[in-house]
Amino acid sequence: MPDATGLELIAQALGEANADSVLGTVFFRDRAVIIANPPHVHEVLERLKAQGYDFLASLHGVDYYPEEPRLGVLYELLDMKQVDRITVKARVHTDTPQIASAVDLWPGADHPEREVYDMFGVEFEGHPDLRRILMPEDYEGFPQRRDFPTGGEPVLFTYNEEKSYGKSQ
Questions:
Q1: Which end of the chain has fewer beta carbons closer than 10 Å to its terminal beta carbon, N or C?
Q2: Non-local CB neighbours of 55 within 8 Å, separated by 6+ positions
């Protein structure tokens, strides 16, 4: 984990390459987070990969409701040689939930990006096959968003409807 100073140096180097790419940093509980500007997240990921953070350990979505921008995409990157970890966070609005795909950098991002799309509605531009992965294709809505209605229709489990427990048959 880069310490707070190391995180600021990494963010400064990224900012020197493109001043609009990094919006800020957070160092909390020994976790280093770079907050990337969504239009430049691919560039940030590419530069970090070139610096040795070449293993994508996790890619996941978050809904920060009621904060805006609401939807977040988090990338957990590892530097296996230095035994180092850094998180890149990008947040997008629900009215334009678009961010660049990282599949060209890490082919393993394919399924996690599809899952974030399926559960949160974030569209990954340039993804080779962006479609639902967990929910049916005709499903409406995004179940992991905090404004998604809970409840719905009760599910009837009929496989044991005929059995009567405790009675002789």
A1: C
A2: 77, 78, 79, 80
| Alpha helix positions (H), 18-151 | 41-50, 110-120
CA angle 48/15/89 to nearest 5° reads: 55
The token pair at 46 is 């590419």
Distance linking the first and last C-alpha atoms of the chain: 65
Buried b / exposed e over 73-95, threshold 16 CB at 10 Å, is: bbbbbbbeeeebbbbbbbbbebe
Q: Are 132 and 117 in contact (CB under 8 A)?
A: yes
Indicate the residue type of 82.
Q
* Tens-level pLDDT at each residue, the chain (169 residues): 578 888 899 999 998 999 999 999 999 998 999 999 999 999 999 999 999 999 999 999 999 999 999 999 999 999 999 889 999 999 999 999 999 999 999 999 999 999 999 999 999 999 999 999 999 999 999 999 998 888 766 666 666 566 555 555 4
Torsional class of 108: left (φ above 0), alpha (ψ -120 to 50), beta (otherwise): alpha
